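Listing S7. Sequence submitted for prediction.
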Amino acid sequence: MKAVGYREPGAIDREDALQDIELPRPVPGPHDLLVEVAAVSVNPLDTKVRRRAGADGDGWKVLGWDAVGRVVETGEAVTAFKSGDEVWYAGSIARQGSNAELHLVDERIVGRKPSSLSAAEAAALPLTAITAWEMLFDRLDVRRPVPGAANAILIIGGAGGVGSIAIQLLRALTDVTIIATASRPETQDWVRQLGAHHVIDHAQPIGQQVEALGIGAPSWVFSITQSGAHAAEAAKAIAPQGRYGLIDDPLGFDILLFKPKAVSVHWESMFTRAVFQTPDMAAQGRLLTEVAELVDAGRLRTTVTDVMRPINAANLKAAHARIESGTTRGKIVLEGF
């Protein structure tokens, strides 16, 4: 089967950073679906792994964790899906990725693809939807009020893939006031279109801008990017006893900034359930099915902003380079082999 992989970690401008390769057809385990991949999206995670982690031994490492496709074979213990089903998922970082014609994924972290979206439109959503959902509803628990605080959330880095779906989930499922940060006119327009009530510039002091809105200190902060750099301003802005969450990997992060206000700090890693095979692992499959229902009901929209064809090394290298530039909005999707 066709795939895109690499052996040694490093910069994207190397000739061998990503290569078109041929791999054997995967064999499903008991809970696995073998999926014929129709479309994938590229996430910042793909670029981080490519820079840091190489293949085992003399094999190949295949990236990609968002996928939409058709089930072509099932493991002996699979009960929820059958051959021919159209599915979407974000996979597991502990396994080979989805940048391949055929891909193995555990059925428990798979949902049914939204019928109203094309494969490319749907591929933009799984990883970011899981990340945003788990942060908002499992970690920050935005349905549980913070005493005396504004029923508001500050999303730092609202224009990227995770921010784009987090804003929509909040509008669809809660009455929380959304303050999103974006630093360029086009990204500010984007988050407004998605439903942010207020937009501020994270290139300027965040705490002062939040205070100037006059709505009170927000109950929650969802920091998506540059969390170390923005931690002090987030600590100023958030309400006492508020809840703060982050998903990136800051080299320096001063958690003591949050102690005076007794703010709880939450990490989100959307692969935790799959990697550790947690008892509630199937919650991700149910989550994706609920997101699909929201999409089909017209309450959520795709966050794809660019589709590249086909899925090959050249296009994936270009997508990685654009993501590493830090200027993308929404999601880049690749479709078809």
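Caption to Listing S7: primary sequence and predicted structure tokens for the chain studied. The chain has a mean pLDDT of 96. The first helix runs from residue 44 to 52.
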